[in-house]
Amino acid sequence: MKILTFLVILSTQSHAGDLIFKSGFEQSTLIGGNASGITSTGLTLNLNVGSSNEVIALNENGSFLFFMNVTVGQSYLVSILTLPSSTNQNCSLSNASGVVPSSGVNNVIVSCDGADKWNEMNWNSGRWN
User: What is the pTM of this model?
Assistant: First the structure.
């Protein structure tokens, strides 16, 4: 005896308006960049997105990444909270604010100048560094 099993799927036509999206499932991405010129520890950056903040410490040169998921289309702002502690370095940011694109942000640049070299003469300016 042969037994045949039939699978019958009853469905109704679906429309795009029938889809339900829950909050939290919006497309999100990350924000990061590259740091150069850091000669000591203590540099901290703050990422502000809406009412959310994340602080990270950068202790060496190279790439960095904030771990906060950021919704595409939101405005973001990266700022320096503290400068490197053991030197008199100044640091600046480039591409530190904007609206988050779907590809994410990986071009925030942290540039720190050289530490004070009190024992080196800058012959071009005629003064000590």
Answer: 0.70
